[in-house]
């Protein structure tokens, strides 16, 4: 698979935190993603009350939208500012507690209990900490993880998904020699290789 010069590109956690601090978050969508609205029926597959996972969630407005529909939403994000912004921008009261299994990690949970957001590296999560999920909305995670970490990311996702779960994945297509990423180019052939 030719991903051009991107295969060795590494974006550090510090760089991501800096993007949030500087407000350099062009990847955030204020109105929610039109593809989730378009393919929501595919993701839910006629089911209600699902546990839905948002990897690298930022302050995605879709989390509240799905929670308001009666689903339980769990997200993970390295930027505490992003998570606090999410609760503040939706006027949602939340409580904050440490995650004993992960050094330095926090969990911010809506007082209604249906939105739990973990502030830590996604690679620190496991199903023993967050459980398993019926659905995954990956709008900007696979395209944000460093290309060398894709297999690690997908392996983790597989351990977090229930047997009959569904994943809605959004990627971007462009000439990887003209843009260094993120978002990174993930060709369809690689997606098929990774997810099987």
Number of strands: 7
What kind of oligomer do you see? single chain
What's the helix count?
7
Structural class of the helix and strand makeup? alpha/beta
Write the CATH architecture name. Answer: 3-Layer(aba) Sandwich
Mean pLDDT: 93
What is the CATH fold-level name?
Rossmann fold
Description:
The protein has 196 residues and is of the alpha/beta class. It has a single domain (12-22, 47-195), classed as Vaccinia Virus protein VP39 (Rossmann fold, 3-Layer(aba) Sandwich). The chain contains seven helices and seven strands, in the order ααβαβαβββαβαβα. Strands 3-4-5-2-1-6-7 form a seven-stranded mixed sheet. Helix 3 (62-68) links the parallel strand 1 and strand 2. The chain is globular and about 45 Å long. It is found in: Cytoplasm. Its main location: cytoplasm.
Describe the SSE topology.
Layout: H1 13-22, H2 34-44, E1 51-54, H3 62-68, E2 72-77, H4 80-89, E3 94-98, E4 106-110, E5 115-119, H5 127-130, E6 133-138, H6 150-160, E7 161-169, H7 188-195
Parallel strand pairs: 1-2, 1-6, 2-5, 6-7
Antiparallel strand pairs: 3-4, 4-5
Main location: cytoplasm
Catalytic activity: S-adenosyl-L-methionine + a thiopurine = S-adenosyl-L-homocysteine + a thiopurine S-methylether
EC number: 2.1.1.67
């Amino acid at each position: 698979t030719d991903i051009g010069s991107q295969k060795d590109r590494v974006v550090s956690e510090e760089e991501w935190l800096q993007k949030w601090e500087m407000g350099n978050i062009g990847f955030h969508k204020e109105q929610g993603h039109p593809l989730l609205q378009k393919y929501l029926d595919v993701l839910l597959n006629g089911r209600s009350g699902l546990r839905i996972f948002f990897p690298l969630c930022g302050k995605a407005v879709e989390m509240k939208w799905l929670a308001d529909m009666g689903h339980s939403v769990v997200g993970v994000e390295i930027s505490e500012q992003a998570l606090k912004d999410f609760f503040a921008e939706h006027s949602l009261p939340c409580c904050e507690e440490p995650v004993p299994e992960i050094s330095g990690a926090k969990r911010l949970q809506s007082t209604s209990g249906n939105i739990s957001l973990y502030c830590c590296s996604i690679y620190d999560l496991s199903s023993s900490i967050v459980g398993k999920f019926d659905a995954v909305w990956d709008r900007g995670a696979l395209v944000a993880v460093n290309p060398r970490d894709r297999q690690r990311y997908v392996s983790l996702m597989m351990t977090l998904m229930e047997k009959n779960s569904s994943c809605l994945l959004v990627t971007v297509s462009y000439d990887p020699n003209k843009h260094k990423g993120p978002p990174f180019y993930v060709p369809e052939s690689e997606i098929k290789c990774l997810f099987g």
